[in-house]
Amino acid sequence: MRKILFAVNSIRAAAIILIITTTLSNILGVIRDHFLAQKIASSQLDVYYAAFRLPDVIFNLLILGAVASAFIPIFTTVIHEEECSLVEETSGGEKPSWRLLNNLLTGATIFLLLAIVLMFILMPLLMGWLVPNFSPDKQRQTIELARLMLLSPLFFGLSYIFGGVLNCFQRFLVYSLAPIIYNLAIIFGAVVLAEKWGVMGVGLMVVIGAFLHLAIQVPSVIQLGWRPRIIIDFADEKLRKIVELMLPRTIGLAANQIILLFFTALASAWSGTIAYFSLANNIQTVPTIVLGSSLATAIFPHLSKQAAQDNHAEFSHWLIKSFRYCLLLLLPATFLIIALRIQIIRLLLGSGHFNWPATIATANILGIMALSLVATGTIPLLARGFWARQDTKTPMWIAIFSMLIAVSTGWFLSAKYQILGLAAAYSLASLINGCLLYCFLRKKLTVKINWLILSLMAKILFACFLMTIVVQLVKGHIGAIVDMDRFWGVAVQFTAAAIIGAITYIFALWLTGEKIRLKDEDIHP
């Protein structure tokens, strides 16, 4: 039973576990956003989301790039060498993999603490640049909240390193439970603490949730054989390789952070728009995380292993299979979100402080951002195709180019279209990022996939157009017979349209000869 719960030896089983738990986590994330929008005014939500930006910068630049793109491939290689008896234990009986982990944990803790202290000191100056259009009182609140939440990158940083270890050993269950605990903590803050303490109460639970995100994973890593030890060996070859690989990824993440910081600075001129943009982005990322990132996370250790063994045929097979699966699910999700965007926002956010103008604004942002849903959903998978081959430079240059597109078009479009212009710029940059990753990666595969993908896209688009027509018809008929001023009326309209639309999509796809479940023989090299 323990093996069933904690060890997953099948990519399909890993993907199923991650999809289920990620779906639950994202449902809780939606509930979290519902209570935040209900309990906190939009102007105060601006403070909350703006305060998140700088702590996120620390985590993204120092940890996220190292774990996803560098640590997992290198750690997987070390484990493979141990299994093949190519490396020996250290003089103290410690496996090289655990020595590498302790070395990374020590170094990460030192650099995270230094970054946190530095940002704590510079926070007033940095916030003056980030939200120049906030009133002095809102800037003060944002500074205080951001300083409180500076503890979260430390906990998240260590947690993601442990999560990388669990990924390498295919212990996906505990790893995937961590964000569920985190979201529950924030929900508690929004429901219980926000009324008395406002956004500071929610910020406190962000820190506690980040600590719990770490705490739930540590016992499983200890169970695998790890024992904590302080090691400072910056000359270690494997650690230097991780740093070498992570630097391009960190630059790529910095490009994305620049986009978010730049957009936050521009959006601070219009009250409530930082909250609208963040809430719409959170909703838009639900299908990308559930359908895209979960699959990419499940398959990444396998891709890294095949790349380490120079098994290019198997590497290509699983990458193409996963990409086709993402297309089959993300394209119809795009059409559904655009067609039902008003209903989605009304159901998830439309209560309490979140009034009708806020609903319309957020729904319009969501519709624009959904245009890049396929790109944002497949970018994690495509990027891991490069990382597994220990190539982090190509995604870096693509991310930098996409950032330049986002910043320039965001500056231009926001002058006329305000927050909608920023949403359009963000979608355009994501589309360019995804397309370039695909174009460069396909050259490295052993299979020529252009015709396979174009044929599949044509079938999916045909099914999506039929689905959209049916959804619009169902919306009109249901809307005429239920009370659309009530929550239950909107819920009935949305549920009926979504279910009948999904059935139509599956049926139309079947008419083309395509199925959601892909046949291996269609894509074997």
Describe this structure in words.
This protein has 525 residues and is mostly helical. It has a domain at 1-268. It has 19 helices and no strands.
Write down the overall geometry: globular
Quaternary structure type:
single chain
Distance between the termini: 36 Å
Give the DSSP E fraction (strand runs of 2 or more residues): under 5%
Structural class: mainly alpha
Which regions are unreliable across 5 or more consecutive residues at pLDDT < 50?
1-6, 518-525
User: Can you give the helix content as a percent range?
Assistant: over 70%
Q: What is the count of DSSP helices, taking H or I runs of 4+ residues?
A: 19
Largest sheet: none
Number of strands: 0
Mean of residue pLDDT? 86
The ordered string of helix (H) and strand (E) elements is HHHHHHHHHHHHHHHHHHH
Rg computed from alpha carbons, rounded to a whole number of angstroms: 23 Å
List strands and helices in order, with pairings.
Elements: H1 2-6, H2 11-39, H3 42-83, H4 96-130, H5 136-148, H6 151-168, H7 172-197, H8 199-215, H9 218-223, H10 237-267, H11 273-308, H12 312-339, H13 341-349, H14 356-369, H15 373-387, H16 393-417, H17 419-442, H18 450-481, H19 487-511
